[in-house]
Amino acid sequence: VSRKHAEIAKDSQGYAVTDLGSTNGTMLNGTPVRAGRLADGDELSFGTTTVRFIET
Fold first, then answer.
1. CATH 2.60.200.20 fits 6-49, yes or no
2. How far apart are CA 48 and CA 40, in angstroms?
3. Tens digits of residue pLDDT in 1-56
4. Chain centre to alpha carbon of residue 45
5. Domain ranges of the chain
6. Contact, 41 vs 21, CB < 8 A?
């Protein structure tokens, strides 16, 4: 995982993830993405670390 790997931000349409030019990339539900919309239950992978996005 890079020091500045990805950014998660909220906008008027919900949440989005943006890869910040990381070496190993960002995966959204197993698919490499530079940017993507997030939905409740999505899985994000940063290198070997995987987290689940839960919107509350």
1. yes
2. 21
3. 778 899 999 999 999 999 999 999 999 999 999 999 999 999 999 989 999 999 98
4. 7
5. 6-49
6. no
